[in-house]
Amino acid sequence: MGTDVELLLDAEPGERADRALDRAEEEFERLEQLMSRFRDDSELSRLNRDGVLEDAGRDLVRVVELALAAREATGGRFDPTVHDAVVAAGYDRTFDAVAPDAPAAEASPAARCGGGVRVDGTRISLDPGSHLDLGGIGKGYAVDRVAEILAVLGPCLVNAGGDLAVRGGSWPVGVTDDLTLELTHGGIATSGRDRRRWLQGGEERHHLIDPSTGRPATATPLRVTVVAGSAAAAEVAAKAAFLGAEIDLPHVVVTDDGHTILAGGLA
User: Fold this and answer.
1) Which of 91, 229, 214 lies closest to 166 in space, CA to CA?
2) CB 264, CB 251: distance < 8 Å
3) Which of 165, 168, 188, 193 could join 147 via S-S bond, C-beta 3.0 to 4.6 A?
4) In angstroms, rounded to a whole number, what is the distance separating the alpha carbons of residues 74 and 133?
5) pLDDT tens digits for 12-43?
6) pLDDT per position as a tens digit, 212-244
């Protein structure tokens, strides 16, 4: 998933715990094989290539449904059809392979967002010219799934590059250098432009697209971290808040000048 994954399990050491951790690792790999836009043989790549997938698996169907519900709930601020805009900005391969200073792209209209997506049972279809990027919500979904696997044995924390899910126990989670939140259940996610960024024709780019413009978002905070009932829900809320939506979930905003704002009941 283009990031380091950390699994913490508070359980009796032994064969059962080892099997659970192995199964958790296998689940991450299985879900990446389904939803990665960088794997030509993934279900998502097949859908993007053909425009329709008749036999989509239950996980891809569920994540697409979650993404469409999130687009509706956020007024389009979260949009799974930002794929072409992300590619146009230069994020057209795994992040480690993205050139730190790529040549400027040829002048072209902003990439299309807000494209039509339909789910009918196991059939997913896209409007012509629309393609899906499920990177953020797919990672959140995977973190939640793996947390459920480990929680059978005891309190756990699953962390995939800052997308976290906790089930049971009490876990300190560092949000900034001087701020730590205690999480006992649910998920945390961060949307920010301080990590995955690069230059294109000498201009800074990042992976967080504003669907209203089809380009990397501007005039935003540095990052927003949100606590929600699940990592997938936190992913959606963090992206929406990053783009200016008002949310009623606990969240932390870090401004361009490094100022930290606590909101949503945090104090």
Assistant:
1) 229
2) yes
3) 165
4) 17
5) 999 999 999 999 999 999 999 999 998 999 99
6) 998 888 878 999 999 999 999 999 999 999 999
166 contacts 183 by C-beta, under 8 angstroms: yes
- Where is 167: in which H helix or E strand? strand 163-176
Domain architecture of the chain: domains with CATH: 5-263 (3.10.520.10)
Backbone angles phi, psi at 256, to 5 degrees: -55, -35
Give one DSSP letter per residue of 5-65, joined into a string: EEEEE-S--SHHHHHHHHHHHHHHHHHHHHH-TT-TTSHHHHHHHHSEETT--HHHHHHHH
The two tokens of residue 189 are 């996610």
Residue 98 has pLDDT above 60, yes or no: no
* Tokens (6 digits) for 120: 């009918």
- Looking up tokens 């996610």 gives 189
